[in-house]
Amino acid sequence: MGNWEGVTEFVAVAETGSFTVASKQLGISTAQVSRQVSALEKRLATRLFYRTTRKVSVTDAGQTYYQHCRPVLDGLEEAERALSQLQSEPRGKLKITAPTLYGESRIAPLLNNFVARFPELDVQFSLTNQKVDLVEGGFDLAIRLGKLESSSMMAKRLASRHQYVCAAPDYIATHGKPRTLTDLAHHNCLLGTLDYWRFQENGHERVIRVHGNIRCNSGQVLLDAALKGLGIVQLPDTYIEPYISKGTLISLLQDFQPSDEGVWAIYPHNRHLSPKVRLLVDYLGESLQSL
């Protein structure tokens, strides 16, 4: 504890410019503040303040020390605040956004369970495939999929998702199975917003350009086309796995399956992040990994 003695008093004096005002702020005597600061200066072997009968000013060394001490005290205050809030039931507004299909199928049921557990929450859940501005939109949390773009947001990986290449049995019966990545050039590939698919080959990522007669920015539309035997599709597990388990879609090129993508919780870089958001992020991570 010795290393902390006098730090709170020093910061109070530095911010108020007065031993008297600092003592009133801290609820202790001016003499006690003075003794603590003097002892701190002695321990540091550094003068932190210039003192005159009319004015107190921070030295250069004091300014450097203050810049390091203030964040430490802020962190301690935030830790105490977080513990205090965690002891009470989460309540109040919580604004969240997620991609449409993933939000409907994976996040919404978990979020509803969370609200059932903490009914004092007032949740606004927005489903969109557009990457909204969290700060401008007033969002506490966003769920993002795949590779993250560089940003000032904080991110926590909640789970992973798999990409599958697959086709309906009717398509395979007519056109055969691609055995290698180069075979895709001879198949009708159902395209999303990009004209290439990602794979792994011999431990390295490979990007293969593909072509086909259907392009749509909706995974649900591409899934429907694949189920009707119109071509081969690459889509995430959320779309595909129920149909693979029923045999209405066949997984292809399994030796070249790309690395798993991340499912991320994104939130503004804010040291006063609400404990209820932290609690939700932890709950989503634990729940998604158990699915």
**Neighbour order of strands in the largest sheet:** 4-3-5-13-6
How much helical structure, as a percent, in the residues? 40-55%
| Topology, number of strands | 13
Flag low-confidence runs. none
Structural write-up:
This protein has 291 residues and is α/β, with parallel strands linked by helices. The chain folds into three domains: 2-86, Winged helix-like DNA-binding domain superfamily/Winged helix DNA-binding domain (Arc Repressor Mutant, subunit A, Orthogonal Bundle), CATH 1.10.10.10; 92-161 and 261-290, D-Maltodextrin-Binding Protein, domain 2, CATH 3.40.190.10; 163-256, D-Maltodextrin-Binding Protein, domain 2. 43% of the residues lie in helices and 23% in strands. The chain is built from ten helices and 13 strands. It has helices at 7-16, 19-26, 30-44, 60-86, 100-117, 134-137, 169-175, 219-227, 237-246, 275-290; strands at residues 49-51, 56-58, 92-98, 121-127, 141-145, 154-161, 163-167, 189-190, 196-201, 204-209, 232-236, 250-252, 261-267. The strands form four sheets. The protein has a five-stranded mixed sheet, covered by helices on one side. β9 and β10 form a beta hairpin. α1 crosses α2, α1 packs across α3 and α2 packs across α3 (30-44). The longest helix has 27 residues, at 60-86. The chain is elongated. The model has no long low-confidence stretch (mean pLDDT 89).
